[in-house]
Amino acid sequence: MISFNTADLCDKEKNLQIADSIFKSFGKNKKFFGKIRTVIAVEDNSYVKKLVDMKVNGDVMVIDGEGSTKCALLGDNLAMLAYKNGWAGFVINGCIRDTEIINNIEIGIKALNSAPNKSKKENVGEYEANLNFANVIFEEGHYLYSDADGIVVSKNELVKHAKI
Questions:
Q1: Helices (H), 15-159
Q2: DSSP H stretches of helix in the chain
Q3: What is the CA radius of gyration of the chain?
Q4: Pairing verdict, β 126-127 and 32-40
Q5: Is the pLDDT of residue 1 over 70?
Q6: Euclidean distance between CA atoms 17 and 123, whole angstroms
């Protein structure tokens, strides 16, 4: 059980960034948090796939697709692989697909919307860039907390992952 609420974090913590309420929730986990890993992936999810392939311990991938709704940057196969490789979740400035299947995977996802078509695979993207969308600057190594109320970002870790 994850023990935090973004509303409580906002009440207790100073210097939090609070994302605009523009995202829809997908995935079985409606509450997730972790260290931010950033990727720019505009209508091409090649770099997303490479990052998903990495084993992590509860990190959150923040993907800047520049708000494009032309295609999905994440589908059920990548979502399942991400879950198996230890990712806690995703925040996507873009779309996902296979939502009915993804909603049964133990992962948290915030995305703008869904789109049925897949992205290009031209190996275009960028890692570790500071991303600026939803009125937040998402920086590699900072921490993201997401629940039903929204998304907050902190420079510091505010909640620890439970040891299994």
A1: 46-52, 76-84, 99-102
A2: 6-12, 46-52, 76-84, 99-102
A3: 14
A4: antiparallel
A5: no
A6: 31
Residue with tokens 């939803």: 134
- Token pair in block for residue 126: 């960028």
**In this structure, what token pair is assigned to residue 14?**
């100073």
**First and final C-alpha spacing in the chain:** 12
**Taken in order 140, 146, 103, 85, is the CA torsion positive or negative?**
positive
List, for residues 45-92, the tens digit of each pLDDT value: 999 999 999 999 999 999 999 999 999 999 999 999 999 999 999 999
Cβ–Cβ under 8 Å, residues 59 and 152: no
CATH top-level class for 22-137?
A: alpha beta
Residue 8 pLDDT greater than 90, yes or no = yes
